[in-house]
Input
Amino acid sequence: MLARHHTPHTTPAGATARDATVAIRTGYWFEALCYADAYAQTPELLDRVMLDTAEEAIRLIRVQIRTTHPFALSPTEVHRALAWSDGGGRVPALAALHRGEIAGFSIVLRDGLRAEWRVRPVDCLSLTVSHR
Output
């Protein structure tokens, strides 16, 4: 939804004109969390960022899986993480995001910590103001 309108803005020194563009778009709220164990309720926040596309969000999960945890994973979890990253999970996760659903992935590290990545589509309001 995009609306473009011209609104006057009055300042104490006088009146000036501004163009304002307002848009509501879908953004993707990304979080990387770490739980003390598989049953912990309160996670430690590792990363949080708003991304523009579902593809960027899934790419960030893939990068973090491949660069952050490969030495802390059991062989079984390495296999599971790479299988998700290379298509078995990322493709359905991307499809879920495009349908407006939450997507994510979690793994258990050798020391019992549980790493989790979550992405959820959110509506973002963007306002662009330009002076004439």
